[in-house]
Specification:
This protein has 36 helices and 22 strands.
Length: 988
């Protein structure tokens, strides 16, 4: 793999160097072998001469058995340094005499080498010489000599070869480096040219003009470059034509869409019925969704270039499917087509993926199905294919009973700008982009889109996608209360798809459901049960084959014993809803549902007819609840000291109460400059920083803090109503650690604090922890009371206080804003924007959502300096604020009448928890004596505990003024005055 990654130049150098090295090594090895053989032969010849001389001299000694003489003769070979042993054997092979060089210890020659006449043995050369006398052998001489000289000669040869390699290899590398250019330079030129051509620079010249194979390749490159340049010119012309087409289409679509969005917003500001407002809200939502999608659809080149990015965020599949049914409800009703949704139970799971792109795919497929279907049904189905621990594979299919397609039409269906009907008088419109985009989006999401179709029967488009499961479910599951689990229902619907869709939905709710196709079957199964009250819910489709739906309900109810009438829900065609509801009311139908029906609508209706509070009990807010989760938050951040930088008093109180509810100690600064002063005198665990404030804004304050070394690690979290795209990035760029948007969602706020805050101590948790008492509150026009209470941990007393403050401070603010906006020039518009921003933040905290949204729109229009947009947004804001103020005034009057009618305890003093107040006031006095800023949070808690105590109101107000000036001495005096007023004492 390493060799493959080398450049051609390096490969050539390596090849030439390796070849030279191998050549030298092979030559050296041959030289060594030849030299060894020659040296050994020469040594053998020398040994042979010595052996012949010694053998001749030893003949007499052998004849006369003179061993001493023989040994002396053998010892004469001592002068030959290589000879180690000399052995003389008699005719019988017995050792007659021998010589052994001093120091030589090998004793195995006699045993191991006596059978060898001549040859090598270990590091020795062996020579045998017969002793001949008168032609007769009288003995044998054997000489053992070391090959030391031969080896030394070989070593010298090896060193010589190594020296040659050391000299030749560098020279060969240098030569290879020089010579490789003959080949590598033309190849490099070709490579650069290919890269330039690949990047679209077809005018690149290939500077290679040789007559070899590389030259031929260069000529082919030049020809290819010329062809590609011509083709690119053609493509650019085609691209320009397509861009012009898309630009024109974009203009044509956006013009009516802008009118649709604008007029819908204006209609929403008028006095309309709840039903109409619901339709208009869905139109507005769908219009904006369509505009967002159009921005990507019409920029087709973005998709082709692979620059379309997919989100990977949590979403609930059933909400996507519910929204799709809402989008096509009118179209399906007008064509009298059954639009059916059949969902797997997994649709209630929270998935991770791009819900907008999934919705875009299904929207395209459903729109096509309705367009090409004149009668019958369009069925959207979701099936579970496989399920793992953290992953599911779902099959989506959209089936219609429309005109269908032949094989030729199917083959070109997914090509861009292709039409199923291309005739001049074609009946069905469309751009031809929808299915191509769907196929590409499905591919980007890891799936494949396919179609099965038959002319005159219909078509089915299908695709399979895999989704990861979200780590935690924050959406409300459609689950009934325990007492309704297993509720027995009877569904009567002639259409198989409608019936199956209802059965799947009821199974998802955990109900026990039975489905039949006709009224007679329904009556029969009721009779057969023998216990009619078993079916506590009857869901009947208006369209029945054998009898009228009203008739069926009357006959069914007649079968029930007196006092056990089941709940009845009637399914109506969308276009005949009003007419049928009038008839249904006469026979006591509990609810009517216009088809197509999605699961959320069905669930809400069932819960309503059984008297269950859907919004409070079964659709819990996604905010943080109590129990173990709340205790975990307390254990993680309880005892932390937080500096809240916020200029609005109501927002200060909301944030303070939320934080103190989990044991956090809160100190308030009204603007950035005040925050800097407080931080200079006290260490806090984190800062919650508003952005838009007087004196010094949050960005400036944060930059100044980050400019000091001691505040580099201080967690600073933006908590602001600036929640548009890019606002979070601005906060982070200013040096903040995180960004939390208003209205405050406790879960998000606590999540940010848990991430960044490391409390120094949890000793103060219990004293800082506020446990508000929840009280029931009636509905208030323009305000979602339950959402507002959830944001305050259910503290209805605090919520009442916030409502009264909002009513008192902002009831007359719209004339002030109008005055600023109506003056000549626009120099006062920023002031108006700040006032609107303040109202928006408070409205969000009290869940006045229409005021919150309209204030945000007005703030944006002021920022755009659009006079027309500001006028329209101001009207909407004025109407929304007026509704809320009238609602609070009505509620306030009712509260006052109720207080007058209820027996009162003297100013509420007798209800005080005096020991707890004494402990709190004693702690507060100590903090005031130390001029400790923590006294601000303790005073806020004291205010909460004395809320509604009239004797304390004036004194608390005086103390608040003193603390606002950081006059701790006066504050302590006022505290002692308050204690005396309430007859509370403690021991110092």
């Amino acid at each position: 793999m390493v060799w493959q990654n080398l450049s051609v130049r390096r490969k050539l150098i390596w090849i030439m160097t390796i070849v030279n090295g191998i050549t030298i090594l092979l030559g050296g090895a041959g030289f060594l072998l030849s030299d060894f053989i020659m040296e050994r032969r020469e040594m053998g010849e020398v040994m042979e001469v010595h052996a012949e001389i010694i053998a001749m001299n030893c003949r007499a000694a052998l004849m006369f058995n003179d061993k001493e003489t023989a040994k002396s003769i053998l010892s004469s070979l001592e002068v030959v340094s290589d000879i180690q042993d000399v052995l003389l054997f008699d005719v019988n092979g017995n050792l007659f005499a021998n010589y052994k060089r001093p120091g030589h210890k090998d004793e195995h020659f006699l045993e191991n080498s006596k059978e060898v006449d001549f040859g090598l043995w270990n590091d020795y050369i062996i020579m045998k010489q017969p002793v001949i006398l008168d032609g007769e052998q009288i003995g044998t001489l054997m000489i053992h000599a070391l090959l030391k000289e031969v080896y030394e000669e070989g070593l010298r040869a090896v060193l010589l070869i190594a020296l040659v390699l050391a000299i030749v290899l560098p020279v060969s590398v240098i030569l290879a480096f020089k010579m490789q250019r003959v080949i590598s330079q033309p190849v490099e030129a070709l490579r650069r040219a290919a890269m330039e051509i690949g990047q679209g620079n077809f005018a690149t010249d290939v500077a290679v003009y040789s007559q070899d194979e590389i030259g031929e390749l260069a000529e082919a490159f030049r020809a290819m470059s010329k062809d590609l340049a011509e083709q690119r010119a053609d493509l650019e012309r085609a691209n320009q034509a397509k861009s012009d087409f898309l630009a024109n289409m974009s203009h044509e679509i956006r013009t009516p869409m802008n009118a649709l969005v604008g007029l819908t917003d204006l209609a929403l500001q008028t006095e309309t019925s709840l039903r109409t407002k619901d339709y208009l809200s869905k139109i507005a939502y769908s219009s904006r969704s369509l505009l967002r999608i159009i921005n990507d659809i019409l920029d087709f080149s973005k998709i082709e270039a692979g620059k379309l990015e997919l989100e990977h965020s949590p979403f609930l599949l059933r909400e996507v499917l519910d929204h799709l049914l809402d989008l096509f409800r009118v179209q399906a009703g007008e064509k009298n087509i059954e639009l059916i949704m059949i969902m797997a139970k997994e649709c209630r799971l929270e998935l991770l993926g791009d819900s907008l792109r999934l919705e875009q795919i299904l929207m395209n497929l459903i729109a096509n199905a309705l367009k090409f279907t004149e009668q019958g049904e369009v069925e959207v189905k979701v099936e579970l294919l496989s399920s793992e621990t953290r992953k599911v594979a779902l099959k989506f299919s959209v089936r219609d009973s429309g005109i269908g397609m032949d094989d030729q039409q199917v083959s070109k269906l997914f090509a861009p700008f292709a039409q199923g009907d291309t005739s001049t008088t074609r009946k069905y419109g469309g751009t031809g982009l929808g299915l191509s985009i769907c196929q590409r989006l499905v591919g980007l999401m890891g799936g494949e889109l396919w179609v099965e179709s038959k002319v005159g029967v219909g078509s089915q488009f299908s695709f399979v996608l895999s989704f990861d499961l979200a780590d935690s479910t924050v959406h409300a599951p459609l689950l009934p209360p325990d007492e309704m689990h297993g509720l027995k229902c009877l569904v009567v619907a002639a259409h198989h798809g409608v019936r199956q869709g209802l059965l799947k939905n009821f199974e998802m709710f955990g109900f026990s459901v039975t489905g039949v196709a006709s009224g007679d079957e329904g009556l029969q199964i009721i009779r057969e049960t023998g216990m009619p009250q078993a079916f506590l819910l009857l869901v009947v489709d208006w369209r029945m084959s054998d009898m009228d739906a009203m008739e069926f309900m009357q006959k069914a109810v007649a079968l029930y014993p007196r006092g056990t009438t089941p709940k009845r829900i009637l399914l109506t065609p969308f276009h005949r809803e009003k007419e049928i509801i009038t008839l249904a009311n006469r026979v006591g139908v509990d609810a009517c549902l216009a088809k197509p029906i999605h699961c959320s609508m069905l669930f809400d209706t069932v819960m309503t007819v059984f008297g269950k509070d859907v919004a409070k009990v079964y659709r819990p807010a996604t905010d943080l609840g109590g129990g173990e989760e709340l205790q975990e938050v307390i254990s993680r951040i309880g005892g932390a000291e937080i500096l809240l930088v916020e200029d609005n008093a109501i927002n200060q109180q909301v944030a303070r109460e939320i934080l103190e509810g989990v044991g956090v100690q809160v100190t308030v600064a009204n603007h950035g400059e005040e925050a800097l002063a407080l931080l200079a005198g006290h260490a806090f665990d984190a800062v919650l920083m508003d952005i838009q404030m007087p004196v010094m804004d949050g960005y400036t304050a944060t930059r100044q803090l980050r400019g000091q070394a001691c505040y580099q690690e201080l967690p600073i979290i933006a908590m602001t109503a600036h929640a548009m795209t890019g606002d979070r990035e601005k906060s982070l760029a200013a040096g903040m650690n995180d960004h939390v948007a208003k209205p405050i969602v406790r879960r998000e706020l606590f999540k940010a604090l848990i991430k960044w805050v490391q409390p120094r101590s949890q000793a103060a948790i219990q004293t800082a922890l506020v446990t508000p008492q929840e009280e029931a509150m009636e509905k208030i026009a323009g305000i979602q009371v339950e959402t507002g209470l959830a944001r305050l941990n259910g503290n209805s007393k605090l919520f009442r206080s916030l409502l009264l403050e909002f009513w008192r401070d902002y009831a007359q603010i719209t004339p002030q804003i109008r005055l600023l906006l109506d003056q000549r020039g626009k120099e006062k518009w920023p002031t108006a924007a700040r006032m609107v921003h303040t109202v928006r933040g408070i409205a969000g905290n009290i869940a006045a959502l229409e005021v919150f949204e309209s204030a945000g729109e007005l703030e944006r229009e002021i920022g755009r300096l659009d006079v027309g947009g500001v006028a329209l947004a101001m009207n909407r804001f004025d109407l929304a604020l007026q509704e809320v103020m009238e609602g609070i005034a009505t509620w306030k009057a009712k509260e006052e009448r109720r207080e007058e009618e209820e027996p009162s305890v003297e100013n509420g003093v007798d209800t005080l928890d005096r020991p707890a107040l004494a402990a709190l006031m004693q702690e507060l006095e100590g903090l005031l004596q130390q001029a400790n800023v923590k006294s601000l949070s303790r005073f806020a808690l004291l205010q909460e505990k004395l809320l509604g105590i009239k004797q304390a109101e004036e004194v608390l107000y005086k103390m608040a003024l003193a603390l606002e000036r950081y006059d701790f001495s006066t504050s302590r005096t006022v505290l002692l005055e308050l204690a005396q007023t309430l007859d509370i004492t403690w021991t110092n």
